[in-house]
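Could you please consider the sequence and fold following this short note?
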Amino acid sequence: MDAAVFVANALRTIDEHVVEAIPRVVLEADEEALHDLRVAIRRLRVLLKIARPLWSGFYAKAVRAPFTAFHRATSELRDEEVLELTLAQVRVKDHAFEQFKKRRKKRERRLRRGILVRLEHGEVDAARKSLNALLELPLNPKHAHELAPFAVEVVRDAQLVIDRLRDTPVTDVVGLHNLRIAYKNLRYAAEIFSEVLPPELAALAEPAKKLQTRLGDLHDVDVAIDTIRKARSLDPALRTRITRSLRRLRAAHVRAYLQVIRPISAGIPAP
């Protein structure tokens, strides 16, 4: 099979998941609706990036851009939701801190309304039309790739990025964020192409998912620490107390991450 045919079918399947999630988000039907929409769009973005050699890189990038813009807006909301959960674990009793959390809750509601407005105005629908137009383009023989070798190359490339970042110190916030994204890309590539990959490469999806999750936990605390650092409505002494509690939480997440990465790193085949 040509890789472009496989990828086009995968994009259509993910697009169906986007279509299913949109009304659930608009109607606020369940708590998982926005999460499901975010995951579907994130998978679309990863696959569109992978697809650049299969179509015109210009077209694939242009189609990906509006999905990226919407996804970033949902990321702000998601970060605010997670911030609330993270700060709930801080055992600091102070009226100013409680007021701060209430103001953040108001911001979360404002961001949620903004997402609903963007959906109701058809932002994602317009992005989907561009995607479907791309998928209707005739395949260019110059961009033809055999599916199995293409899939292996995609996964190997994702592994190489991780190899460059794997030894990132746990104190390097930006580096760990980049490593988390690298594991996410490896996970999605291994999942999407699992049926045509050698077993040892398809099996990379599960450990990549575990490490993405652990690094995500770390990232959430790092975002909270940065938010508190910038919170000028809190006096310095209170910021220090909250930050100290968050750093204890971060240390626990670091330990959990290291417990996972050591055995996994030992068992990952070299690219």
User: Anything to note?
Assistant: The first helix runs from residue 3 to 26. The radius of gyration is 21 Å. The mean pLDDT is 91. The chain has ten helices and no strands.
